[in-house]
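FW: tagging you since you asked about this chain on Friday. Here's the raw sequence from the shared folder, copied in full. Didn't touch anything.
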Amino acid sequence: MSVSNPTLITFVIYIAAMVLIGFMAYRSTNNLSDYILGGRSLGSVVTALSAGASDMSGWLLMGLPGAIYMSGLSESWIAIGLIVGAYLNWLFVAGRLRVQTEHNGDALTLPDYFSSRFEDKSGLLRIISAVVILVFFTIYCASGIVAGARLFESTFGMSYETALWAGAAATIAYTFVGGFLAVSWTDTVQATLMIFALILTPIIVLLATGGVDTTFLAIEAKNPDNFNMLKNTTFIGIISLMGWGLGYFGQPHILARFMAADSVKSIAKARRISMTWMILCLGGTVAVGFFGIAYFSAHPEVAGPVTENHERVFIELAKLLFNPWIAGVLLSAILAAVMSTLSCQLLVCSSALTEDFYKTFLRKNASQVELVWVGRLMVLLVALIAIAMAANPENRVLGLVSYAWAGFGAAFGPVVLISVIWKGMTRNGALAGILVGAITVIVWKHFELLGLYEIIPGFIFASLAIFFVSKMGAPTAGMVERFDAAEKDYNLNK
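HL: got it, structure written out here
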């Protein structure tokens, strides 16, 4: 790894810029609200792009292109499901959650919101939801660290163990220092870099393989079924891939962007920006994996690394087809995808530990300065645990992400969605929904029942639990009053 290596220099410049943004955000972080939600000051562009970047982790440039490369267009159902789910989340949840969290104790975290929305004096709802966040987000953080390690390992020839620490260090640095504002500002830069990489790369691959007709003929020659959206799929298989879209309703790192928007008026514009960005990125991702089939069929002599690990298809194409300086920028897009999501996850875990455990149960009267520093220490703690979990070099990015995504989607998705649209939901209904959703995912995953992605039964059973348990009781007058006030606020300002 020579110091003059253009890719290395590009990486260093990029990482230094992200850490600099962290120090700029540090100067705007005065209290816990600033550290956790940026003082609810995000405009529509930053809300849109940070929501997109925090969503699209390393799997966007590694896991999904690898799946398309291996199986063809039949794996693209996941992208269709994600687009539908993300749009519905923006449409039904984003604006309503923004006003509901403000009307319910100016809640900073999801457990905080649940506790205030359902007047949970026992603290049980807060504790259980915070535990769910910590369990599934630590797994999710591990997936980001694995993706970063794979990038450093294949780009610079590092050992997996060294790459693990190198990939995580920069993200930990700017999240530790700058908190939510650093995460959101860097996400905006990273989202721009990701869309640049995912539009440019498939175009260059097409040119390298002789244009559209030649590329499609090569893909067909490799396996005609690569074009078949139904190849090796079943009804359950398609439903499982589409079911990824359900996960959006329960992802704390995405929902935090909605909570941090400066107003409900920003949401509609943010939705249009975010969905355009997302469709272009997912289209580019599918194209990279699909066109990669043609390229490596024509150049089997350089296909070794991709044959060994198909999740490296984007990395290898960038290294083979571009000038080292441009390749450095493109590979930085993977680092951007990893860092943007990992930083959000670390911050949400830190928020749960600081706001929902430390402040609530240990130090009710802690000063704002103390809480910010506890939040920073929690970022370090969660990062170290995630690094330990990611230490196995056999880990696959998409496998880790799918489990964590399902856990949040089933445990929190129905609770969040129903809580912002139905005033009749009760505290016991919310508690039942979280428990049933989380337990269903864990049990279904363990026994691999019916070959169905665990988020689907988890989401359905949790929704039924919320409805039937809520019907056994009734919301208090205060809960109904706050719900109606928030809904009126939303309708006046949307």
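FW: The longest helix spans residues 160-208.
HL: agreed, and The chain has 21 helices and no strands.
FW: great, closing this out.
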